[in-house]
Amino acid sequence: MSNIALITGITGQDGSYLAEFLLEKGYQVHGCFRRSSTNAFERIEHLTDKIELHCTDLLDQASLERLIAKIKPTEVYNLAAQSFVGSSWDQPILTGEVTGLGVTRLLEAIRMVDTSIRFYQASSSEMFGKVHETPQRETTPFHPRSPYGVAKAYGHWMTVNYRESYDMYACGGILFNHESPRRGLEFVTRKISDAVARIKLGLATEVRLGNLDARRDWGFAGDYVEAMWLMLQQDKPIDYVIGTGETYRVGDFVQIAFDRVGLNWEKHVVIDPKFYRPAEVDLLLADPMKAQEELNWKPKMSFQELVETMVDHDLQRLSALANTSLKVLRKSA
Ligand code: NAP
Ligand code: G4F
Q1: Quick check: CB of 189 below 6 Å from ligand 1?
Q2: From ligand 1's centre to the CA of 129, what distance in Å?
Q3: Which fold has domain 188-215+247-283+303-324?
Q4: Which atom of ligand 1 is nearest to the CA of 58?
Q5: CB within 8 A of 302, min separation 6: which ones?
Q6: Beta-bridge partner residues of 7
Q7: Which residues line ligand 2 (CB under 6 A)?
Q8: How far is the CA of 146 from the centre of ligand 2 (A)?
Q9: What is the CATH number of domain 4-180+218-242?
């Protein structure tokens, strides 16, 4: 029997890398997208003839159940979420509905259709929040600091609960920050790489940022989707921390990004209190030993390489855009 995967959040950063990864492994890949008034398929345009897309929403229980009954997946990866921590203070209820309760809706849909389906929940290091120990490992208590973190903690514990209550193969990957050229522009890494490219090309002069002292354990998203898959291939469902074991300041990311294009960051970065959070997560650092030993998983891309890859990508993308616009302007002149 062939492996059939269903990915919620397939239009997002991780969804696009996971779809590529599973196609390489020979999976039949199905993805959920939600109805939107604008085109949200930019990250998976190159895959649309290889995957099947279904319109559904984590807010709509019946649509999830119908879909699972129809496609009969062997594995479900729940990557869909209101995933931006900053917005979770503006929309705490929506965040709870999608990022928290959405997990239960999906687990219930699976339970109603077939409890042998394997389930991956995209849990988050944001659950550690005001950290109780450093580095953070699977046994570190949660102390979330945002409505997003609280919703993820709920979704994580529901996953554990369905595993323990119904003997389902359900596990939570506690992933630390992972980035890529496909990262949303609202997240700090991509905001910086995009701004650096704009400044270098003369399209902008400054970038406004918040707390440069926050520390994160940043890896490459393309490496992390393998860990998701590995978690569903074990004999028993177990939760794992996935990260690099290195931590850097937002300021370090800024420095490397500006260095890459030969500019002095101090001339272009403006600190704007608007981007400070009501409650900050000051320090995240993973202890990924369990995943290294039991899943044989290790990140491949270094922090420096990640920053440089993102800056190079945005430089190329914006240069191409600028060239096209110039050509159009010349033609119409
Ligand atoms: P992302 O790029 O923001 O993607 C989120 C996805 O969720 C998008 O496809 C989005 O669809 C979809 N979505 C949002 N609301 C939905 C709803 N009501 N119903 C169905 N789909 C909905 O996030 P990501 O970086 O790929 O992260 C994937 C998952 O891992 C998320 O659950 C995130 O919280 C979690 N996570 C991420 C990180 C990280 O550092 N990236 C770390 C730990 C955990 P649209 O395209 O329509 O917006
Ligand atoms: O890039 P961020 O918005 O990511 P954050 O809050 O760490 O959340 C990401 O990682 C989580 C895993 O730990 C995921 F679960 C979650 O879905 C998401 O992918 O902010 C990183 C840090 C924060 O400390 C923030 O205060 O950067 C700081 N920061 C400083 N200036 C800024 C800015 N963040 C943003 N977004 N924009 C700024 O201008």
Answers
A1: no
A2: 19
A3: UDP-galactose 4-epimerase; domain 1 (3.90.25)
A4: 19
A5: none
A6: 31, 77
A7: 83, 85-86, 124-126, 176-177, 186-189, 191, 209-211, 214, 216, 250, 275, 277, 280-281, 284
A8: 11
A9: 3.40.50.720
Catalytically annotated residues: 124, 126, 148
- How open is the CA angle 80-190-227, to the nearest 5 degrees? 50
Quick: pLDDT tens for 311-321: 999 999 999 98
Q: How many CB atoms lie within 10 A of CB 191?
A: 17
Taking the C-alpha atoms of residue 185 and residue 179, their distance in angstroms, rounded to an integer, is 11
Q: Backbone phi, then psi, for 265, in 5-degree steps?
A: -60, -30
pTM: 0.98
Position 228: which residue type?
Answer: M
Answer whether 15 contacts ligand 1 (Cβ < 6 A): yes
Omega within 30 of 0 (cis) for the link into 278: no
pLDDT tens digits along 81-118? 999 999 999 999 999 999 999 999 999 999 999 999 99
Supply 195's token pair.
């701004």
Under 8 Å between Cβ of 109 and 61: yes
CB atoms within 10 A of CB 28: 17
Same fold, 4-180+218-242 and 188-215+247-283+303-324: no
Q: How far is the CA of 39 from the centre of ligand 1 (A)?
A: 16
Task: State whether the beta carbon of 219 lies less than 6 angstroms from ligand 1.
Answer: no
Q: How crowded is the C-beta side of 136, counted as CA atoms within 13 Å?
A: 29
Q: Which atom of ligand 1 is nearest to the CA of 98?
A: 18
Does residue 12 have its Cβ closer than 6 Å to ligand 1?
yes
| Ligand lying closest to the C-alpha of residue 273 | 2
Q: What is the pLDDT of residues 292-306, one digit of tens each?
A: 999 999 999 999 999
Question: What's the angle, vertex CA 214, arms to CA 11 and CA 171, rounded to 5?
Answer: 45
